[in-house]
Amino acid sequence: MQVRTSLPMEREPCVLALGNFDGVHLGHRKLLLHGFEQAVVLGVGLDVLIFEPHPLKVLFPERGVKLLSSTQERLQYMEELGVHTVYHLPFTLEMANTSPEEFVEKILLPLGVMHVVVGFNYSFGAQGKGNPELLQALGHKHGFGVSVLQAQTIDGRVISSSSIRKAILQGDIQLASSLLGHLPCLRGTVIHGEERGRILGYPTANILTSDDFLIPKRGVYAIWSLIDGRRVLGMMNIGMKPTFHEMYDTVVEVHFFDFDGNLYEKEITVFIEARLRDERKFDGVNELLKQLDKDCSTAKAVLNQTRDR
Ligand SMILES: Cc1cc2nc3c(=O)[nH]c(=O)nc-3n(C[C@H](O)[C@H](O)[C@H](O)COP(=O)(O)O)c2cc1C
Ligand SMILES: Nc1ncnc2c1ncn2[C@@H]1O[C@H](COP(=O)(O)OP(=O)(O)OP(=O)(O)O)[C@@H](O)[C@H]1O
């Protein structure tokens, strides 16, 4: 797959899918699948246009939108799906002020679009004034086709990046996974913690995440990671360690089972299988340890059930 950060010198005929694709969820996958079908019919590749930063971050910085996936992950999913070229263009205020007509003339036509695929709720151009109907009209004028995909739903719920973010913030990992079609994950660098964990018999890797990404609701989770190519199971706490502190910044810490390597400074990705419980304040270390023993058994049972996924 090619990744390009500017428009091509010459038009290269393509089918183009448009959107942000944060999380590359099942709705996005359905859209891309439709794009592939069109691409096969037209004998060209399927390309995708995404912007960086995510337009919401530029348009509404005050909302502090947190993302489900990094650009690298979005690109990886697209490569796995067989996308030919991803145009990864900067989203500037100038781009935000481009009218729908200009967007088509200055971006889509130079890309060589023969056909464009968008979802029912796609908006484009200044103040989001362009909608799928306008895109179809502009396609008619300039000679490219436009497919508009109906809303993809699961159990009557429309799949969207925002609904998945909401589920993760509420700790509903099952719902988030079913809408995503894959497990939610967290990534970051392992840093030094208070080093109490190893004394307790539950050493933890403290993970420093980037401010751009969404952190799930506080609580305890069954997780796994790939460390040096090996799937290592574990349990994660996202919280403020109320047993030890009145007030503390939220930390993400993972205890891996059957693992004793040095993870400091390593970048790790944690795949979240299930939420086990809320974080609690215990009456001392012994009570906490009893609960950690139980969490360990519960997490192992959950992870064993999902091992073959
Ligand atoms: C799976 C798991 C569950 C945890 N649950 C709680 C909890 O409910 N309440 C709490 O105060 N601390 C909880 N902790 C955090 C421990 O207090 C923390 O791991 C311990 O203080 C060691 O971390 P440190 O070395 O960074 O201090 C949990 C930790 C893990 C790994
Ligand atoms: N459930 C869905 N069914 C069909 N198309 C979808 C669905 N969700 C998104 N799309 C389409 O996929 C493309 C990329 O989606 P985009 O990431 O912009 O939207 P989204 O997932 O709805 O995100 P958000 O919730 O942030 O609006 C767009 O063309 C969008 O219309």
* Structural shape: elongated
- CATH class of the largest domain reads Alpha Beta
Overall mean pLDDT score? 95
Question: What small molecules does the structure contain?
Answer: flavin mononucleotide, adenosine-5'-triphosphate
Count every beta strand, where a strand is a DSSP E run of 2 or more residues: 14
Head-to-tail CA distance between termini: 26 Å
How many separate domains make up the residues?
2
Helix content: 25-40%
Please name the fourth-level CATH homologous superfamily of the largest domain.
HUPs
Radius of gyration: 22 Å
Number of helices: 10
For the sheet with most strands, the description reads: 6 strands, parallel
Series of H and E elements = EEHEHHEHHEHEEEHHEHEEEEEH
User: Strand order across the biggest sheet?
Assistant: 1-4-3-2-5-6
Looking at CATH, which topology of the largest domain would you report? Answer: Rossmann fold
Per DSSP, what share of the residues sits in E-state strands of 2 or more residues? Answer: 25-35%
Structural class: alpha/beta
